[in-house]
Queue: 2 jobs
Job 1
Amino acid sequence: MRLDRRRLNGIAEQGVSIFVTLFGLLILTFVIGRIMPVDPVRAIVGEDATREVYENVYRQLGLDKPMWQQFLLYMRDVVTLDFGTSIRTGQPVLQDIARVLPATIELATFAILIGAGLGTPLGVIAAVNKDRWPDQLIRVISLMGHSMPIFWTGMIALLVFYANLGWVGGSGRMSQFYIGLVPERTNFLLIDSALAGEWEVFRSAINHIILPAALLGYSSSAYITRMTRSFMLDQLGQEYVTTARVKGLSRRQTVWRHAFGNIRVQLVTIVALAYGALLEGAVLIETVFAWPGFGQYLTSNLLIGDMNAVMTCVLIVGVIFIGLNILSDILYRVFDPRTR
Amino acid sequence: MDPVLDIQRLSIRYAGAPAPAVRDVSFTLGRERLGIVGESGSGKSTVGRAIMRLLDTAEITADRMQFEEVDLLNAPERKMLDVRGKRMSMILQDPKFSLNPIQRCGHQIAEAYRTHVRCSKSEARARAIAMLEQVHIRDPERVYDLYPHEVSGGMGQRVMIAMMLLTDPDLVIADEPTSALDVTVRLQVLRILDGLVRDKGIGLIMISHDLNLVRAFCDRVLIMYAGRVVEALDARDLDNAQHPYSRGLLAAQPRIGGTREPLPVLARQDSWLEPLEAQA
Amino acid sequence: MSMTRDIPAPVPRRRMPQSLIAARNIVAFLTRSPTSLFGLVVLALLILVALFAPLIATHDPYAQNLQATLQPPSGTHFFGTDELGRDIFSRLVHGSRITLTIISLVTVVVGPLGLFFGTVAGYFGGKVDTVLMRITDIFLSFPSLILSLAFVAALGPSLNNAIIAIALTAWPPIARLARAETLTFRQADYIAAARLQGASSARIIWKSIVPMCLPSVTIRLTLNMATVILTAAGLGFLGLGAQPPLPEWGAMIATGRRYMIDSWWLVTFPGIAILCVSLAFNLLGDGLRDALDPKQMNKR
């Protein structure tokens, strides 16, 4: 009974904190939107609209009202999921984003699989060989991934693996040749092409996604490796590891069956956070690879000052981040027997 | 009877340490119960871990370090995997830390068995449950499925004992097996351990800082100070110990019915750091 | 501890101030590891090049020469020329000044800002803490590049605005760290003693808490510099940071992109420069962490 109440309190507290963070997010995007130098009315009515038309739109947008009323209006819009239309595409922003987001999710998911698949074992190996040469080598490899300007590595990789060696597809999600061949059901190209049974397109899509995903994955594996190493070092110093060895388990069994199990929970948290951080890399890498995703949508609207679109993108990134944080929290509870 | 363990002039130096942690320790062990007593830092736990070959980075030298037919100095790790947990095992101090927090107790016990005996899961489970009964756990089926944080310290240590004795080893090293437990359950746990060790004829090394405990549960006692054995004697002769350090330790014990004077403080002498010649 | 023991202490004629001795010990420790040594050398090189840029550069970084566009690397143009015939080596050398400016300005803003909010939140606790940490949470709920993008979009693209945007997004982790450190000292006896002597809160924070937070904040700042450099370059690449014809490395890559297939040197050298400097800061931060406190390993 008391435990239940404590748990309820915990959930309530977390709910409040999420709510406050979301509210702060709204204030932030609102403020950024207001200080933007682009005149939103001009952007809608065009350069040679009459004064009358201009004033009309000005009032329609509520720009004549005091700031706090404008904020309330903004909040109402957000709550009703009305984010306005994009000036560039002329479509509702939400619709635009729903169209481009799958491409980014596809890329990020592929990347995180590579990143976690690479980073976790490397981190474990580094920890087991602490201060010996494998550790040093892995440290340099992972710091490299942390230090490279990903837009540059992307260009170089394109130059080498696409232009010179021809091992992978170039920019875009698939070869020009296949565009429009597959019906868009989920907008996840790999899924759509598989559903349609278009294996040629599927191959082409894999061929195109592998390079940007590998680069993003490498850059996120840097973080994952370093965290895995430090978690693992903590665990290897624990007594239960000694117990496992006393039982006659080999060092490898001790590490993977016992110590690794204990960092799994922390790892899940880290991978969830790394997934969010991939969005950042995606903005740059999508520009380089002409990947028609969220990042490209954001930057191209940024450059022309499409305020509605930009602010919505920022808001959505924030919400995704908060969502990932909550998710990792939940996963923590589910996986760790001590918190059940 | 052949000794289970024969150790002559064992010295251990940790990597990067200026002085060895253990110097010239010699003793033999039959199917008996040997206590190693000393204050913290005296090297008693290090000896235990060296016998198990758990000190990967330390530098270990000895004239002889023999466990039954196994030469512990030169045996390859592959051989040690076969010996550890099957023929010799070790009970660690605090079940809060020495049990894997995210695996069920029973699973951890069964794993000890399955590592060395080829058998089905259900057989290992049956063995583990039988062993839990032997350590006087009333509801073994239930405890089997509990996580370590769900059992009490005394229960945890019994789980540990079950895990370490399941494979019928010839040698068990108990490293402060009860110091982390409540005073009320210490004796109970020790009795269980003692009973099993006697029944199965296991050679036991009990590492402890508690003189009374060692006196009650061991046949012989080694007293260590600063990495050396300063005195070796039968447990019943403990009160007649000769070495000034041993005498000091004994004098520092409170006794029921004793005088109410402040207890004497150990006065250390540098001469104790000299090696002791004649060994048991 | 081992670092003080191993260094033979020459008898100083005049007593050096404690902080100088500590700094010397840290540098000595860093030079012993090849990776941090690399970091130190690159950083020193960056500062030297930035200081003496006009002397080192072989050409005027802005001088166009339409007769010699897109020349491959050679004796006269070490790293070749760009699409306007400007010498890439000279532009890189002058670009180091921009990089250094960004780093120092961001540090000067972010360090004190983060320290201030962190120590105040940690010292006073309660409502102050809740409010301040809530604010940092909001900032932390964005990837820093995206938040900087939004700020730059709002302020208009330029180098100064990029610096402001980066600084605005870089202080919350510092504040978090300073707060965590402060919480561990807050209950310490010497703080209580200072309070009993009647020291004001401001004085306690400034004299007793800030110095204790400095080592970890310094490490964090160093590690952050790598991210700052990458963010700045990213903004430059997207056309939101330094504007042409400024020889900012990220912007150079962006313009070189069009000629990349035939003229690899346009993007290769600026990229290597960014990679080296950011790697140097990462290696240095890593080394500093070992030098100052091995227990810091797993703090984010």
Job 2
Amino acid sequence: MPLLDLLSRKPILFDGAMGTELQNRGLAVGSPPDLWNMERPEAVGQVHLDYIRAGSQVIETNTFGGTKSRLERSGAVELADRVNSSGAKIALEAAGKMAAVVGSVGPLGSLIEPYGDVSKEDAAAMFRKQVEMLASSGIQTILIETMISLDEALIALEAARSAGASEIGVTMTFQRSGDEVRTAFGESAADCVRKLEEAGASFVGSNCGSGFEDMMLVATEIRRSTKLPVLIQPNAGVPTVENNIVIYSGSPNGFAEFVRNVTKLGINMIGGCCGTTPAHIAEAKRVIDSL
Amino acid sequence: MGIDKEFVMLADAVIAGKHIEAGDLTSKLIDESVPPGEILENGLLPGMDVVGKRFRDNQIFLPQVLISARAMKASMKILEPLMVGSGHKMKGTALLGTVKGDVHDIGKNIVSIMLQGNGYTVIDLGTDCTAEKFLSGAGQHHPDVIGLSALLTTTMVYMKTIIDFLRSQQVSIPIIVGGAPVNQKFADEIGANGTARNAAEAVELITKLMSERKEN
């Protein structure tokens, strides 16, 4: 069933963070979370299950860094196919009939020409390859996320389409720049979602960033700039370090408050990015159930 | 045409990000026997200074900085071989690297460019750098400052490991940290000598730290 068939009066609840949640469960700082699809599949599956039990209607595969470009940088390029096929399998098994699964696709982590050395053709080929692996493993909806450049987002969107994905969402990361919200590349949120809508995205939105407060600004700007369904997934605040442990300041209660406020804007889908946990999702579910 | 006019043209080429023009103007100045150090000081540095300030003030964004950096590099490629042994004194040396587990290098690269554009020598250790790599880099290059970069909240904690390790090995050089998730509070908590919100501020911070070191 297409993800967007789930849309109703109430927002659809996505899951929370995967990377930071795996770190809470023993993934070493600096180690790519995606490799746990092969090394610790049961731990990845357990995170999915914990989110579903907390109320997630949609979970994301643990494949954020599953492009050749990123795996190359962590010396694991030969694992690209398996990262994606295993990630899809783990998520689909965990979801069963209880949740929908979307395939997570993150940025290449390298700059595309003319700003960097990766050609547009190579960038498209790397995205296409990842989406082909996810699609052939049974994933129909792709979520391209954490994009900081509209060019890269558009290349990924086109590549995902040519790889056979039937539904493609794109969420970008914005930062506050005075009264405006822009990508690191300087593109306004309004411009980004309009161009993504023109290019045929099924839904748009924003993820990551610097916490709930700034994300309200981003969500407001995006909502008034597009007719497409909007997905918003903030970080649990800006992290600090205490006793060598990264602490995210955004509590489950703070997230519940955010969900209440962002729902009033007419946001259709809500989840969490870095630092959010099953406890955050459980609080969000209570808010959504009460609507 | 006067030399001053040509310096302004070179600065403008850097600001506009015209790398072919920047290279051509540099070659022309060299042909006119202008010392490479003067071309750097009077053409490239004023140009990158404008770029840095505009970036800091949100007047321009990453793409324009990257394009200007490419223009500066086109010029530096011609100047660098000529500057070796020319007696031109650089302002100091910075050792930069992105910490272990983090493969993002956009921020570090911009700091690197801004520093070079302000007359510093930069030793770039690249991405995914361990504490040991920073130690051996410090031993080999004798930098005046060490800069650690992390874009991910998941890798920033490793900065503390590096600082603790370098201090335990008697490295007393100032260590600064930067990256999207890093703030002053975090820098203080992990014992860094400073942090900056963007590349232009990083240059100001390094200049300040170096002058303090000289005074002591």
